[in-house]
Write a structure and sequence with these properties.
Number of strands: 19
Radius of gyration: 31 Å
Distance between the termini: 53 Å
Number of helices: 2
Shape: rod-shaped
Strand content: over 45%
Order of helices and strands: EEEHEEEEEEEEHEEEEEEEE
Structural class: mainly beta
Largest sheet: 7 strands, antiparallel
Low-confidence stretches: none
Mean pLDDT: 83
C-alpha cells in the first residue's frame, strides 16, 4: 500500500483569543508512527501566520491509518537557558604614532645639541618617518546566543547577517550610543533542544567617542567611536636643537564603516 498524507475536511481550526491554528491530516499506508511524525515535520511549516508549530499529535485511526494534528500557537519568550550572553574586556591593540605625553629625552654626551622635540611623535627614524608602536586599547566585546526558528533562519536571513557584518549601530543598541557598537558577524547551528530551532551567536565590539583631544600643537580634535584617525607629519626645524623634528601638522578623521539598523538582526534593538 502506498503511503499517503492528505488534509482532512475538518482541518484548519482556529481561535482568536488566544490565537491558535490547527492543521488536520490523515496518514495511511504504514504502521510506523515515527515515520508518520517525521513525514509530518517535513511536510508542514515551522511557522504559520506568525504562529509557531507545537507538538505534533498522532492518533491511531485504524489499520495503517493515522490522524495527524499539527497545532500552532504564539511562541513564548525563550527561557533563561535558551539565551546566553558572554563578554570579554581584555581589550584590543592599535598602532599609535603619537604619545599622550612626552616624558623625557636623553642625549648622547657626544651630541652637543639638544635632542629635537618631536611633539610626542613615536619612533622617528633617520628619514623622518614615524613608525609608532602597538598599544592596548579598550575594545569590550560580547556575544549573544539566541534560539531562532529554523524557518526564519533561512538563506535570506543569512544574507541579511552577511550584509550587516562590519556595520555600526544606526540607533541606540543595548544602551550604547549610536555609532559605538560594531557588529562582527554571527554563527549558526542546529539545536539539540528542538529540531525546529537554530542557535545563532552574534558578536559585537564596542568603542567610544573621543572629544577634545590633542596631538602635538593641534587641539580640539573630535573622533567618532569607529572613525579612523590618522596623523600627517612634516619635518620642521627645532630652533633649540638646530635639527629637524617630525611633528604632526594635521589630524584627519575618516568614516570607514556604514551605519545600519540592528533591528534587522531580529534579536531586539
Amino acid at each position: 500500500m502506498a503511503f499517503k498524507f492528505y488534509e482532512r475536511p475538518d482541518s484548519r481550526k482556529s481561535t482568536e483569543n488566544p490565537r491558535s491554528f490547527t492543521f488536520g491530516y490523515t496518514a495511511e499506508g504504514t504502521t510506523n508512527n515515527l515515520y508518520v511524525k517525521a513525514y509530518a515535520l517535513s511536510a508542514t511549516p515551522a511557522i504559520y501566520d506568525g504562529l509557531w508549530r507545537q507538538d505534533i499529535q498522532i492518533t491511531p485511526d485504524g489499520h495503517m491509518l493515522w490522524r495527524v494534528d499539527v497545532p500552532y500557537s504564539p511562541r513564548q519568550p525563550p527561557s533563561p537557558g535558551n539565551y546566553k550572553w558572554a563578554f570579554d574586556t581584555t581589550g584590543g591593540t592599535a598602532k599609535i604614532t603619537h604619545a599622550l605625553e612626552h616624558i623625557q629625552s636623553y642625549n648622547s654626551p657626544s651630541n652637543l645639541e639638544d635632542p629635537p622635540d618631536h611633539k610626542g611623535s613615536i619612533g622617528v627614524n633617520q628619514n623622518g618617518d614615524v613608525e609608532g608602536c602597538e598599544k592596548v586599547v579598550p575594545a569590550p566585546k560580547w556575544t549573544e546566543t539566541w534560539d531562532m526558528p529554523a524557518a526564519a533562519a533561512s538563506f535570506i536571513y543569512q544574507d541579511t547577517l552577511t550584509a550587516l557584518t562590519g556595520t555600526v549601530n544606526l540607533y541606540q543598541f543595548r544602551g550604547k550610543s549610536p555609532g559605538t557598537v560594531r557588529f562582527d558577524g554571527a554563527q549558526g547551528s542546529g539545536s539539540n533542544k528542538d529540531p525546529n530551532i537554530v542557535e545563532v551567536t552574534f558578536h559585537f565590539t564596542q568603542s567610544v567617542d573621543i572629544v577634545g583631544t590633542f596631538y602635538g600643537d593641534i587641539t580640539g580634535v573630535n573622533k567618532g567611536a569607529w572613525h579612523y584617525l590618522w596623523l600627517e607629519y612634516a619635518q620642521e626645524e627645532d630652533q633649540d636643537a638646530k635639527r629637524n623634528a617630525s611633528r604632526p601638522i594635521a589630524v584627519h578623521v575618516e568614516r570607514i564603516y556604514n551605519a545600519a539598523e540592528f533591528g534587522l538582526l531580529l534579536i531586539g534593538a
